[in-house]
Amino acid sequence: MSTRISGRTISLGLGFATGVIIAYMFLVLREIVFPKDPLFVLAAILTYLFGWLVSAIRLKYLHRLLDGNDKPLKIHHYFKARILGGLLAYVTPSALGGEPARAYYLTIKTNGYFSRFFAITLLEAYYDVVTVNIIALGLSIIYIPLSIPVILVASASIAYWVIFYYILKNLVDPDKLVYPLNHMVIYAINKIKGRISGYERFVEAFKYLTDKLTLMDKIFLAIYTFLYQLFFSIVAYFVFLSYNPGMVHNKMSSLIDVLFKSIIAYFYSNSLAALPTPGGAISAEYGLSIVLSPEVVILTRIILYYTPIILGLYIVHREKLLHKLTDLLNQKQ
């Protein structure tokens, strides 16, 4: 960007985000009922972290598609990038997402261009939104009318991102877009093109990446996306068992029923989290509460919300990212 951003601006932003985190923490902690078996809570956290690892493998897969083996990184860098994206997404309105944080971290580690990595992270977001909301729509028939908000939000999210993907893919030649999108996009491009450095690199990278995707690549990306979201959904299952440890001795059908309900609750929650509140607060809780009991909802949200925030803040401090981001924001994009 051409606008100069200082360390003070970033610090003020983080200060606001910290305030949001603390306020939300007081809201949820005052309602928590402590579990009977903490080992299941540990299992929930480890499962959640494994889900983040799977998402890091997907990010590495996309990076290789774009740059081949020219600038390979170790898997822990992609893991950190994903966690930092979670940090940003959970302390800002959900409409922003964690794509800029992931792109900046990879830019720092590869000495590459933010605009190219931003293309990768937007493609990630596309697969996340479409996959989660298609599943949420399919599962929404089970709990109608309580799931009507899920149907509305999921349908709108899919429509928005499909159109957005269509526009991004055709930014190289916007005349190919259908009317009146072509005129609207051309007008917008003329307004911002000279003000945003790296615009051409972003457009070319996104076009190259999407054109290069084979059917097998798309299948792999969909599988990676589903798998990591599935691991995230299992967090609620282990949280439920932490409050009901005796259930492990029940019939397998009972455990499968709890697992299925946990998966349903997670996809409802993740779909509704698209509403523009920090970390999807309130809307995400409603999605979980359609299926799960209050104590399970609260502890599940604490794990899903605070794990990437705590890890992300540690990564920011450990790698001195504030100074690096300040320099990067004022140099190449």
Question: How would you describe what is shown here?
Answer:
Helix 5 packs across helix 9 and helix 10 packs antiparallel against helix 11. With 333 residues, the protein is an all-alpha fold. The chain has one domain. It contains 13 helices and no strands. 38% of the residues are buried. The N terminus is likely disordered.
Strand and helix map with partners:
Blueprint: H1 7-29, H2 38-67, H3 75-91, H4 99-110, H5 114-139, H6 148-169, H7 181-192, H8 199-212, H9 215-243, H10 252-272, H11 283-289, H12 294-318, H13 321-329
Helix pairs in contact: 2-3, 2-5, 2-9, 3-4, 3-12, 4-5, 5-6, 5-8, 5-9, 5-10, 6-10, 9-10, 9-12, 10-11, 11-12
What's this model, at a glance?
Helix content is 74%, strand content 0%. By secondary structure, the chain is mainly α.
List its traits.
333 residues; mainly alpha; 0% strand
Largest sheet: none
Q: Could you tell me the mean pLDDT?
A: 86
Q: What distance lies between the first and last C-alpha atoms, to the nearest angstrom?
A: 7 Å
Q: How many domains comprise the coordinates? A: 1
